[in-house]
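SAMPLE LOG
Freezer: B-3
Tube label: C17
Construct: single chain, 527 aa
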Amino acid sequence: MITGKNYIGNNQSAKGSKTYKTFNPLLNIENETVFTEATSDEINEAIALASEAFKTYRTISGKKKAAFLNAIADEILALDDALIQTYCSETGLPEGRAKGERGRTIGQLRMFADLVTEGSWVEATIDTAQPERQPMPKSDIRKLLVPLGPVVVFGASNFPLAYSTAGGDTAAAFAAGCPVIVKSHPMHAGTGELVASAIVKAAQKTGMPNGVFSNLNSSGIEVGSQLVKHKGVKAVGFTGSIKGGRALYDLAAQREEPIPVFAEMGSINPVVMLPKALKNRNESLAKTYASSITLGTGQFCTNPGLLLGIKSEDLSEVIQNLSDEILKIEPSVMLHPNIIGAYENNKKKATSQPELNVVASYDAEVKTNYARQTITTVEGKTFLENPTLHQEVFGPYSIVVQCENAIQLEQIISKLEGQLTGTLIAESDEATQYPKVISALQNRVGRIIYNGVPTGVEVCPSMNHGGPYPSSTDSRFTAVGVHSIKRWVRPFSYQDWPNELLPNELKNENPLGISRLVNNKQTTDKI
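STRUCTURE (predicted):
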């Protein structure tokens, strides 16, 4: 029997009696490895090690953290085919997707390594003393961002690499100076364990303190709940369902010392198609959005689950063309029987709503765990009055809402829950005619796209991946890009401290050569 292990700091452990296996949705069979759920003792040990490691790790230099992050990237690459094969066996996703996601994971790690090497991300701010100021002297006050402490990261079901064990949350937390405890996702525990082994090797090779990283397995909610409630944990990162994210958020808020939970949750990502664009690009829009809706079997948080247009013959034609195009696409496998089960249940709930019309539904025979894509349509008035139609159906499903006019279109957008993205499809001279629609869309989303598709999240400093609740629990922060590091830090000020006792980032001589705001002037100069 092949046994999977928890990583408690540098050591492997499997003390528990509760076991489970991952599942190959493509073959519709369980994988061989047996994983052991972490015990309370193992949870406590991991957090104790992380708390101790924080005392050292929070003070190490940016260059040493960068060496650690780059070493993680190197060790992940060294896993080579073993990682790719395990990924594919646990997800049913093709090799190309696995390698692409690995590349994104490596890119994120190296991006944060570059960030902490340069060092200005700490936002060092210095206001020098003015002892002669009247009527009251001014103290010397200096501020920078400091790490929060041990962070728990929950692996995401739909991104076993880029949003999981060594994904964006973990990379950002490491860059900030926070130890990380990963609650591995049960659907890809084998992939998680391989990546965990890479992180542990990197930590040992670069001299990081034992406990800077742990990886805990669990098939249910118990381990995650214990982690969030533990007083040694100082922040949480989560990507998944509204139900799961909200449960963790509530647990964290109920603690004696509440902690932040940065959860990226549900989103239907409204797409507004303006009249001229519908008329001029009818066929191309249908093809483009048929591909976007079915991309990755609809298992992206940015999947376009809601299309909005003003009622017209052109909109009717787009609906027909979209229906025709989406039925030409071969169905593909979903990540797990539980996910396709939820898709079918949520789709059934949506399509059973009064006055909703199913205009395209793939009805040919498909293999087990393959999802049948569906397009529905409804009148704007019905959509406004039925909140059930606003809910995410995670999978290759989208609803087209036919609005009476621009006023109703604006009303519908304004009544939507918070979303990760919004998209505007418009001709070059058209967008200026709908300022209220655009303003309403901007107020409900974290990112607005012009004449594109929401699927695909570029990892770069300008990217915002977050939005008003429930797309995320705190719309002030992004979960992607270098600015996601700000979730794991807090501002901290020194007042009238001797120069020699200050951290290097705040010393007069600026030994790190970083950019600082000194007396309201951005500069790299010494004081």
